[in-house]
Design brief:
This protein is mainly beta. The chain is built from no helices and 13 strands. It has strands at about 5, 10, 20-25, 35-40, 45-50, 60, 70-75, 80-85, 90-100, 105, 110, 120, 125-130. The strands form three sheets. Strands 2, 4, 5, 6, 9, 12 and 13 form a seven-stranded mixed β-sheet that branches. The radius of gyration is 14 Å and the shape is globular. It starts with a strand and ends with a strand.
Length: about 130
């Protein structure tokens, strides 16, 4: 059984930092791309960042480039999202996601076989609130 468990969310002031973790069990992370989505109330889901397994490349939405860094520790089966210089507009629930069809892509950041494709494995979500 595949399980993704996120941690690290919380309340932070603008300009602050948080590090999210996504620990995966039930599959070997070496062979999977892993992405982070976020969803704010009343807004569409946004692909924030993605870590490719095949070539080690990382991908970011324009809105977070230069502020967020995705990394992975395959030995720990864990993916991290370091978020610096946080802004109120970063407030959202953040989800990590993976499956065998997920891949990283320029533009969309996280991509599947089709636009309507629903990924198999999701974390439970972790709330990030940026507010003074």
């Amino acid at each position: 059984q595949v399980k993704l468990v996120e941690s690290g969310g919380g309340l932070v002031q603008p300009g602050g930092s948080l590090r999210l973790s996504c620990t995966v069990s039930g599959l070997t992370l070496d062979y999977y791309a892993v992405g982070w989505f976020r969803q704010a109330p009343g807004k569409e889901r946004e692909g924030v960042s993605c870590s490719s397994s095949s070539d080690g490349r990382t991908y970011y939405a324009e809105s977070v480039k230069g502020r967020f860094t995705i990394s992975r520790d395959n030995a720990k089966n864990t993916v991290y999202l370091q978020m610096n210089n946080l802004k109120p507009e970063d407030t959202a629930v953040y989800y990590c996601v993976t499956d065998s069809f997920l891949h990283c892509a320029d533009g969309d950041v996280i991509s599947g076989p089709s636009r309507s494709y629903e990924y198999d494995y999701w974390g439970q979500g972790t709330q990030v609130t940026v507010s003074s």
